From TrEMBL:
Name recorded for this polypeptide: GNAT family N-acetyltransferase
Superkingdom in the source lineage: Bacteria
Keywords in alphabetical order: Transferase
Keyword tRNA processing: no
InterPro entries linked: Acyl-CoA_N-acyltransferase, Acyl_CoA_acyltransferase, GCN5-like_dom, GNAT_dom
GO-annotated molecular function: acyltransferase activity, transferring groups other than amino-acyl groups
N-acetyltransferase domain location: 118-246
Gene3D superfamilies, per database record: 3.40.630.30
Protein backbone atom coordinates (compact mmCIF):
# COMPACT_ATOMS: atom_id res chain seq x y z
CA UNK A 1 0.00 0.00 0.00
CA UNK A 2 1.49 3.36 -1.03
CA UNK A 3 1.45 6.44 1.21
CA UNK A 4 -1.61 7.96 -0.42
CA UNK A 5 -3.70 4.81 -0.04
CA UNK A 6 -2.43 4.36 3.52
CA UNK A 7 -3.48 7.91 4.40
CA UNK A 8 -6.90 7.48 2.77
CA UNK A 9 -7.55 4.24 4.65
CA UNK A 10 -6.86 5.88 7.99
CA UNK A 11 -8.79 9.10 7.32
CA UNK A 12 -11.87 7.32 5.98
CA UNK A 13 -12.59 6.20 9.54
CA UNK A 14 -13.89 9.76 10.03
CA UNK A 15 -14.59 10.86 6.46
CA UNK A 16 -16.57 14.04 7.08
CA UNK A 17 -14.12 15.55 9.57
CA UNK A 18 -11.24 14.82 7.20
CA UNK A 19 -13.00 15.57 3.91
CA UNK A 20 -10.61 18.48 3.25
CA UNK A 21 -7.68 16.03 3.29
CA UNK A 22 -9.47 13.08 1.71
CA UNK A 23 -10.73 14.88 -1.38
CA UNK A 24 -7.30 16.23 -2.44
CA UNK A 25 -5.91 12.73 -1.90
CA UNK A 26 -8.67 11.17 -4.01
CA UNK A 27 -8.09 13.80 -6.70
CA UNK A 28 -4.31 13.24 -6.50
CA UNK A 29 -3.70 16.98 -6.05
CA UNK A 30 -1.92 16.64 -2.69
CA UNK A 31 1.52 15.36 -1.76
CA UNK A 32 1.64 12.97 1.20
CA UNK A 33 4.55 14.01 3.42
CA UNK A 34 3.89 11.44 6.11
CA UNK A 35 1.45 8.59 6.75
CA UNK A 36 1.86 6.48 9.86
CA UNK A 37 0.03 5.17 12.90
CA UNK A 38 0.66 8.46 14.72
CA UNK A 39 -0.66 10.76 12.01
CA UNK A 40 -1.05 12.04 8.47
CA UNK A 41 0.56 15.11 6.95
CA UNK A 42 -0.06 16.38 3.41
CA UNK A 43 0.94 19.42 1.38
CA UNK A 44 -1.09 21.33 -1.21
CA UNK A 45 1.00 24.17 -2.62
CA UNK A 46 1.89 26.34 0.41
CA UNK A 47 -0.63 24.68 2.75
CA UNK A 48 0.14 21.87 5.20
CA UNK A 49 -2.79 19.80 6.51
CA UNK A 50 -2.32 17.44 9.40
CA UNK A 51 -4.04 14.86 11.59
CA UNK A 52 -2.20 13.37 14.55
CA UNK A 53 -3.10 11.17 17.49
CA UNK A 54 -1.55 13.23 20.31
CA UNK A 55 0.16 16.55 21.10
CA UNK A 56 3.51 14.75 21.02
CA UNK A 57 2.79 13.33 17.58
CA UNK A 58 1.62 16.72 16.38
CA UNK A 59 4.91 18.29 17.45
CA UNK A 60 6.96 15.49 15.86
CA UNK A 61 5.19 15.91 12.54
CA UNK A 62 5.53 19.69 12.55
CA UNK A 63 9.20 19.42 13.42
CA UNK A 64 9.73 17.30 10.31
CA UNK A 65 9.02 20.38 8.19
CA UNK A 66 11.97 22.56 7.10
CA UNK A 67 10.11 25.73 8.09
CA UNK A 68 6.82 26.93 9.54
CA UNK A 69 4.23 26.70 6.75
CA UNK A 70 2.48 29.74 5.36
CA UNK A 71 -0.86 28.04 6.04
CA UNK A 72 -1.54 25.15 8.37
CA UNK A 73 -4.77 23.20 8.88
CA UNK A 74 -5.01 21.51 12.28
CA UNK A 75 -7.69 18.88 12.80
CA UNK A 76 -7.41 18.70 16.58
CA UNK A 77 -7.33 21.53 19.11
CA UNK A 78 -3.97 20.34 20.45
CA UNK A 79 -2.47 20.58 16.96
CA UNK A 80 -3.56 24.22 16.90
CA UNK A 81 -1.88 24.81 20.26
CA UNK A 82 1.35 23.09 19.16
CA UNK A 83 1.46 25.18 15.99
CA UNK A 84 0.89 28.41 17.92
CA UNK A 85 3.67 27.44 20.32
CA UNK A 86 6.09 26.83 17.45
CA UNK A 87 5.18 30.25 16.08
CA UNK A 88 6.39 31.85 19.29
CA UNK A 89 3.33 31.74 21.52
CA UNK A 90 0.22 33.89 21.75
CA UNK A 91 1.98 37.26 21.37
CA UNK A 92 3.81 36.29 18.20
CA UNK A 93 0.74 34.54 16.87
CA UNK A 94 -1.19 37.81 16.70
CA UNK A 95 0.62 38.41 13.40
CA UNK A 96 -1.18 35.40 11.94
CA UNK A 97 -4.79 34.25 12.12
CA UNK A 98 -6.92 31.36 13.26
CA UNK A 99 -10.18 30.46 11.53
CA UNK A 100 -12.03 27.61 13.25
CA UNK A 101 -14.28 25.90 10.69
CA UNK A 102 -16.70 23.05 10.29
CA UNK A 103 -16.53 21.00 7.11
CA UNK A 104 -19.64 20.61 4.98
CA UNK A 105 -20.00 18.07 2.18
CA UNK A 106 -22.70 17.01 -0.26
CA UNK A 107 -22.86 13.25 0.21
CA UNK A 108 -25.93 12.53 -1.90
CA UNK A 109 -25.83 11.36 -5.51
CA UNK A 110 -28.77 13.36 -6.90
CA UNK A 111 -27.99 16.71 -8.59
CA UNK A 112 -29.47 19.81 -7.01
CA UNK A 113 -32.02 22.03 -8.76
CA UNK A 114 -30.51 25.29 -9.99
CA UNK A 115 -32.73 28.33 -10.45
CA UNK A 116 -33.16 29.22 -14.10
CA UNK A 117 -33.53 32.85 -13.11
CA UNK A 118 -29.76 33.26 -13.33
CA UNK A 119 -27.21 32.57 -16.02
CA UNK A 120 -24.15 30.90 -14.47
CA UNK A 121 -20.92 30.89 -16.42
CA UNK A 122 -17.14 30.95 -16.01
CA UNK A 123 -15.69 34.35 -15.26
CA UNK A 124 -12.86 35.97 -17.18
CA UNK A 125 -10.01 38.17 -16.03
CA UNK A 126 -12.02 41.32 -16.71
CA UNK A 127 -13.92 40.60 -13.48
CA UNK A 128 -10.84 40.04 -11.28
CA UNK A 129 -10.47 43.60 -9.95
CA UNK A 130 -14.15 43.86 -9.10
CA UNK A 131 -14.18 40.47 -7.36
CA UNK A 132 -11.15 41.47 -5.28
CA UNK A 133 -12.87 44.70 -4.26
CA UNK A 134 -16.14 42.99 -3.39
CA UNK A 135 -14.85 39.91 -1.51
CA UNK A 136 -14.92 40.49 2.24
CA UNK A 137 -12.46 37.97 3.73
CA UNK A 138 -9.16 38.91 2.08
CA UNK A 139 -7.50 41.12 -0.51
CA UNK A 140 -5.48 38.96 -2.91
CA UNK A 141 -5.80 39.91 -6.56
CA UNK A 142 -3.08 37.51 -7.81
CA UNK A 143 -4.87 34.56 -6.18
CA UNK A 144 -8.18 35.55 -7.76
CA UNK A 145 -6.49 35.90 -11.13
CA UNK A 146 -4.91 32.46 -10.73
CA UNK A 147 -8.26 30.85 -9.91
CA UNK A 148 -9.87 32.54 -12.90
CA UNK A 149 -7.01 31.30 -15.08
CA UNK A 150 -7.60 27.79 -13.71
CA UNK A 151 -11.17 27.99 -15.00
CA UNK A 152 -12.83 27.47 -11.62
CA UNK A 153 -14.36 30.92 -10.96
CA UNK A 154 -18.06 31.19 -11.80
CA UNK A 155 -20.53 34.04 -11.71
CA UNK A 156 -24.31 34.29 -11.61
CA UNK A 157 -25.73 36.92 -13.93
CA UNK A 158 -29.16 38.53 -13.84
CA UNK A 159 -30.14 40.63 -16.85
CA UNK A 160 -26.49 40.67 -17.89
CA UNK A 161 -25.21 41.99 -14.55
CA UNK A 162 -22.92 40.02 -12.24
CA UNK A 163 -24.96 39.21 -9.14
CA UNK A 164 -22.51 36.97 -7.27
CA UNK A 165 -19.60 34.61 -7.62
CA UNK A 166 -18.04 31.40 -6.34
CA UNK A 167 -14.77 29.57 -6.96
CA UNK A 168 -12.95 26.37 -6.20
CA UNK A 169 -9.93 26.92 -3.98
CA UNK A 170 -6.60 25.24 -4.71
CA UNK A 171 -7.35 22.50 -2.17
CA UNK A 172 -10.70 21.81 -3.86
CA UNK A 173 -13.13 23.51 -1.48
CA UNK A 174 -16.04 25.54 -2.76
CA UNK A 175 -15.32 29.05 -1.55
CA UNK A 176 -15.29 32.81 -2.05
CA UNK A 177 -19.07 32.71 -2.31
CA UNK A 178 -20.24 36.31 -2.37
CA UNK A 179 -23.46 38.04 -3.45
CA UNK A 180 -23.54 41.71 -4.37
CA UNK A 181 -25.73 43.74 -1.98
CA UNK A 182 -28.40 44.70 -4.53
CA UNK A 183 -28.95 41.00 -5.35
CA UNK A 184 -29.14 39.61 -1.83
CA UNK A 185 -32.16 37.55 -0.72
CA UNK A 186 -32.88 36.57 -4.33
CA UNK A 187 -31.45 33.03 -4.24
CA UNK A 188 -28.11 33.87 -5.85
CA UNK A 189 -26.00 32.01 -3.28
CA UNK A 190 -28.16 28.88 -3.51
CA UNK A 191 -27.94 28.88 -7.31
CA UNK A 192 -24.16 29.33 -7.31
CA UNK A 193 -23.47 26.61 -4.75
CA UNK A 194 -25.99 24.17 -6.25
CA UNK A 195 -24.31 24.63 -9.63
CA UNK A 196 -20.90 24.03 -8.03
CA UNK A 197 -22.17 20.88 -6.32
CA UNK A 198 -23.51 19.58 -9.62
CA UNK A 199 -20.20 20.21 -11.40
CA UNK A 200 -18.45 18.14 -8.74
CA UNK A 201 -21.00 15.34 -9.07
CA UNK A 202 -20.57 15.29 -12.84
CA UNK A 203 -16.81 14.94 -12.37
CA UNK A 204 -17.21 12.09 -9.88
CA UNK A 205 -16.02 14.19 -6.94
CA UNK A 206 -17.47 15.09 -3.54
CA UNK A 207 -18.36 18.78 -3.21
CA UNK A 208 -17.19 20.23 0.10
CA UNK A 209 -16.52 23.55 1.79
CA UNK A 210 -15.33 25.13 5.03
CA UNK A 211 -17.67 27.25 7.15
CA UNK A 212 -16.10 29.63 9.65
CA UNK A 213 -17.79 29.28 13.04
CA UNK A 214 -20.23 32.13 13.54
CA UNK A 215 -21.18 32.42 9.87
CA UNK A 216 -24.85 31.70 10.46
CA UNK A 217 -25.88 32.59 6.90
CA UNK A 218 -23.51 30.00 5.46
CA UNK A 219 -24.66 27.33 7.91
CA UNK A 220 -28.27 28.01 6.89
CA UNK A 221 -27.31 27.75 3.21
CA UNK A 222 -25.58 24.39 3.66
CA UNK A 223 -28.57 23.02 5.55
CA UNK A 224 -31.00 24.20 2.87
CA UNK A 225 -28.96 22.47 0.14
CA UNK A 226 -28.68 19.21 2.07
CA UNK A 227 -24.96 19.25 2.90
CA UNK A 228 -23.75 17.26 5.91
CA UNK A 229 -21.68 18.95 8.64
CA UNK A 230 -18.70 17.63 10.57
CA UNK A 231 -19.17 17.18 14.30
CA UNK A 232 -16.11 19.14 15.41
CA UNK A 233 -13.98 21.96 14.03
CA UNK A 234 -10.69 22.08 12.22
CA UNK A 235 -8.51 25.19 12.22
CA UNK A 236 -7.01 27.25 9.42
CA UNK A 237 -3.91 28.90 10.85
CA UNK A 238 -1.20 31.27 9.74
CA UNK A 239 1.83 32.04 11.85
CA UNK A 240 2.96 35.08 9.93
CA UNK A 241 6.51 34.77 8.61
CA UNK A 242 8.73 33.62 11.52
CA UNK A 243 11.35 30.93 10.87
CA UNK A 244 11.34 27.88 13.08
CA UNK A 245 14.49 27.38 15.11
CA UNK A 246 15.79 23.82 15.25
Amino acid sequence: MNLTDKAIARLEQQPLHFIDILEPLHRRTAQVLYAGEDGIQIQIHATIMQSSVSPQAAERLLNRLPRIPELFVAHESYEKEVFEHLCGGADAFEAGFCNPCLAAAYLKKEPLPVSERFTIRKLTQKYAQDINKQYHLFDDLPYIQERIQAGVFYGAFLNGELAGFICEHIEGTMGMLEVYPKFQRMGVASALEADAVNRNLAAGRTAFCDIILGNDASFALQKSLGLSLSDRPHYWLSGGTPTKEN
